[in-house]
Amino acid sequence: MDLGLTGHAAIVTGASRGIGRAIALALASAGCDVAIAARGSEALEGVAREIEALGRRALPISIDMTLPGMAEMLVARTAEEFGRIDVVVNNLGGSAPANKPFMETEPKDWRGVMGINLYPAIETSRLAVPHIRKQGGGSIVIISSIYGREAGGYAGYNVAKSAMNSLAKSMAREL
Prior knowledge:
alpha/beta, Rossmann fold, 5-stranded parallel beta sheet, 5 strands
C-alpha cells in the first residue's frame, strides 16, 4: 500500500523501543526518512540500523526531551539533515514521577509528569509546524492513553494524558 510518504521526513520521539520503535519502522517502510529520539543511545542505534536496512535514512538523536532547548535541537537537526519535516509523532511519555496517589503528590511531581508527557509534545509540535507548512502540509500525531479519556492509574498520568488529548484537538482546530 502506497501511503504517499516516499521522500518525506518524520520525527518520532520515544523511538528506542515499543510503540515508538514500531512507528519509526512503519514510517521507514512507507518511504520516510526518520529522525528518532530517545534517551537510550544503544537501543536508538539499533533502531537506526533497522531503518537503514529498509533503505531509508535514519537520524538517531540521544536526547532528554525534558531538558530546556532539546525540542529546538531535535527539530533543527532534523530539518538540517533531511531538508524538510512532514510528520511528527510525539510518543514520549510515562507516569513517573507522579506515579502515586493524589494526596501523596507534590507540585514537583506534577511538573515532572507534565514535563515528560505534555511539554515535549507542545514544543516539538510548535517548532515543527513552520517546517510542515513549508511542505504544504503534513501530520502531527500525539500518542496518548485510554487513561486520558477515563480514570485508571494515578491522577498525574491521567491528567497529563488528558492534556495531550486536548492539545491534539486544539491543534487540529487551529492548524
